[in-house]
Amino acid sequence: MTDTATHSDDRFDIAAPHRELLDQVLDKWSLAVLNELCVQPARFSGLRRAIPAVTQKSLTATLRRLERNGIVERVVLGTRPVAVEYRITALGKTLRPPVDIILNWIEAYLPSIEEARRRFDEAMDGPSLTQEYEAGERMT
C-alpha cells in the first residue's frame, strides 16, 4: 500500500455511532477484560487480580459499558452470600476474529512501525514519543 493519494472510495467512513462503539469496545481495559473472559467467566475480584493495573473505578465503568453493548453479561449467582460473575456473550465472542486480524497486522508490520518511529524520533532530535509514553506509563 504505497499509494497515499486520497480516493473517495478508499476513505474510512466512520460515523459517530461507529466511532463511539469502537471507543467503548476496543479501549485498553475492554480488550484486557475480554481477553480474560474469553478464557472463562470471572468475578469482579478475579478480574482485578488478572488485570492489576486497572483501578476499581475503571473496571466497573468498563464492565458496565461492555454489558450495555451486549458484549458481556452480568450473572447473579445463587450463592450465599450472593455473588456476581461476568461472562462474555455470544455477541462478544464475535469480536475475536476482527481483533485477531488487527493483532496479526500489528505482528506483521511492527518492525516497519518501529523503524518509522525511530526515524521520526531522530528527526525530532529529542526524547522519543515512545520513551515519553513509557515514562508516563511507569508513573501511573
From TrEMBL:
The keyword Phosphoprotein does not apply. Keywords: DNA-binding, Transcription, Transcription regulation. The keyword Transcription regulation applies. SUPFAM superfamilies: Winged helix' DNA-binding domain. Residues 16-114 form the HTH hxlR-type domain. InterPro entries: HTH_HxlR, WH-like_DNA-bd_sf, WH_DNA-bd_sf. Pfam families: HxlR. PROSITE patterns: HTH_HXLR. This is Helix-turn-helix domain-containing protein.
